Backbone:
């Protein structure tokens, strides 16, 4: 593997607390938009973004849906335990686990877990929510594995677990907002086009899109396509190591339809990714194709695979192999996972333009932005900080053209 000697201190900047957007603006598309192209920066309003895009491009959205994955339980002693559902354990497929009607198991982060050795927990505050009281939702600790635990949930009334979460859970807004979830988050921490349940964090670049903006994109002739990557809690985890080589990326499952794969292979139009999750999905496709060429089938994309050696296959060759594999197995979509990390030195093969918010200091997302703009992230962030842009999930947006 090529040596990835990237120091996280080189990707630090001062982000004052008051620059973090704690709440969304009244109108999604009224956010500010920073446009970076060929080293030049300009300032606009998000609703005008379609005017700045090339005609006949492909814009790729992540249509994952945030689930109300944070649950509050209570021990018989009265101690409160917070459980944050991360990913399915049994059944292991999202669609199946959300359809379960009595029992399921999740990998979770458990707050106050040291105070919970054994026994079942009961849901808090059921007095104020009549529907929740009738479910009798309980949680039992099955096993602990480092920072996470496997939790078994049981309930009555035969409702699917998706409905149980809607009744009993809260939207897990990012910890850096330093507040509890509120009713506004149920609507605004979700994209308009969210469809498939599974994320514990929103693909926040998509929060700015309105029906008005989507109609403008359509009238411009931009082909709007969807992928689905379920965003995991790893997106909130800070890089604790001094160098990025010591950081472990969590697996995130994704789905891409074969029709989009064919369009990407056959029509090398400009590809616009809405959000870093769409970028990671699109760029993972090349390596899934390499796996098909060299090993006969795709599997989870390892974190450091893009840096392991020089890959000589063209993007079209790689996607062609992936499409052939799906056709041979009568599959209409690729379903796998990725741990891919995108850092300076990464070779982009699918994405030409990126729509994204402004990210935390020393984060993997800031490394991705730096890789995309040829290392010139600091010019962009200095401009945003000095021109009143709002940062992080509910903040303003940027339109970045790849260096």
Residues:
């Amino acid at each position: 593997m090529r040596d990835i000697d990237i120091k996280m201190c080189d990707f630090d900047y001062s982000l004052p607390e008051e620059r973090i957007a704690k709440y969304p603006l009244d109108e999604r598309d009224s956010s500010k938009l920073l446009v970076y192209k060929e080293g030049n920066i300009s300032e606009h309003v998000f609703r005008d973004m379609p005017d700045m895009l090339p005609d006949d491009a492909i814009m790729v959205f992540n249509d994952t849906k945030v689930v109300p994955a944070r649950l509050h339980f209570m021990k018989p002693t009265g101690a409160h335990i917070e459980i944050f559902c991360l990913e399915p354990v049994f059944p292991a497929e999202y669609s199946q686990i959300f359809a379960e009607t009595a029992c399921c198991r999740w990998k979770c982060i458990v707050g106050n877990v040291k105070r919970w050795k054994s026994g079942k927990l009961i849901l808090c505050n059921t007095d104020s929510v009549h529907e929740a009281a009738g479910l009798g939702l309980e949680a039992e600790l099955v096993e602990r594995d480092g920072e996470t635990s496997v939790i078994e949930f049981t309930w009555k009334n035969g409702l699917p677990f998706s409905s149980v979460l809607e009744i009993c859970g809260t939207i897990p807004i990012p910890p850096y907002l330093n507040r509890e979830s509120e009713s506004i988050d149920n609507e605004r921490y979700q994209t308009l086009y969210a469809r498939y349940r599974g994320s514990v964090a929103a693909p926040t670049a998509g929060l700015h899109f309105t029906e008005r903006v989507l109609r403008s994109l359509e009238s411009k002739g931009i082909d709007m396509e969807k992928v689905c990557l379920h965003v995991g809690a790893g997106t909130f985890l800070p890089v604790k190591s001094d160098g990025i080589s010591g950081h472990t990326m969590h697996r995130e499952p994704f789905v891409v339809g074969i029709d989009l794969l064919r369009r990407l292979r056959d029509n090398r139009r400009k590809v616009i990714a809405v959000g870093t999750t769409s970028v990671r999905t699109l760029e993972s496709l090349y390596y899934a194709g390499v796996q098909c060429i060299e090993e006969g089938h795709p599997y989870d994309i390892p974190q450091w695979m893009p840096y392991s050696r020089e890959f000589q296959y063209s993007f079209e060759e790689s996607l062609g192999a992936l499409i052939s594999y799906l056709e041979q197995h009568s599959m209409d979509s690729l379903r796998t996972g990725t741990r891919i990390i995108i850092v300076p030195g990464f070779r982009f093969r699918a994405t030409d333009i990126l729509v994204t918010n402004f990210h935390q200091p020393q984060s993997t997302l800031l490394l991705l932005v730096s890789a995309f703009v040829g290392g010139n992230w600091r010019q962009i962030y200095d401009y945003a900080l000095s021109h009143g842009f709002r940062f992080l999930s509910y903040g303003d947006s940027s339109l970045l053209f790849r260096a």
The two ends are 24 Å apart (CA to CA). Residues 300 and 337 are 5 Å apart (CA to CA). The chain has a mean pLDDT of 93. The chain has two domains: 8-65+189-401, 69-169.
